[in-house]
Amino acid sequence: MAVSFYPFSFNDLMLTHDKINQHIDNIFGHDMHAKRVHSLANATLGVIQKGSLAIHTIGKGLATAKKLKPKSSIKQVDRLLSKYRKAVFTEEVDTELKNICIDI
Q1: CA gap 69, 59 in Å, rounded
Q2: Is the per-residue pLDDT at 72 higher than 70?
Q3: Domain boundaries, given as residue ranges, for the chain
Q4: What sections of 6-69 are H helices per DSSP?
Q5: pLDDT for the residue numbered 2
């Protein structure tokens, strides 16, 4: 019988979609719609699966992890992140405009 040096099982460390979804729901559930929490959990799973932050690769990782078609997974990730890109861009433009107005 082999002696384990670890007080836990490595299977306990495996991040499943359900664990990720539950964790994200605990963090953002009160501020975000349930479908968006689910999409964010999907994108997180894609990042973990492929180890990349490129939209196309995240979608492929999601497709691999959940055995889905890559095209639909990539589209889901793109739609999720495009909403945040618009928000970040708008915030940056607002900040720059405020700085310009203060300088004048």
Answers
A1: 9
A2: yes
A3: 16-79
A4: 17-28, 34-50, 55-66
A5: 54
Query: Are residues 66 and 45 in contact, defined by beta-carbon separation less than 8 angstroms?
Result: yes
pLDDT of res. 69: 94
Kindly provide the b/e burial profile for residues 34-51, where b requires at least 16 CB atoms within 10 angstroms of the residue's own CB.
Answer: eeebbbbbbbbbbbebbe
Compute the distance between CA of residue 97 and CA of residue 75 in angstroms, rounded to an integer: 33
The candidate with the shortest Cα–Cα distance to 56, out of 82, 77, 84, is 77
Q: Is the pTM of this model over 0.85?
A: no
Contacts of 44 (CB under 8 A, 6+ apart): 20, 24
Q: Within 13 Å of residue 15, how many CA atoms lie on the same side as its CB? A: 14
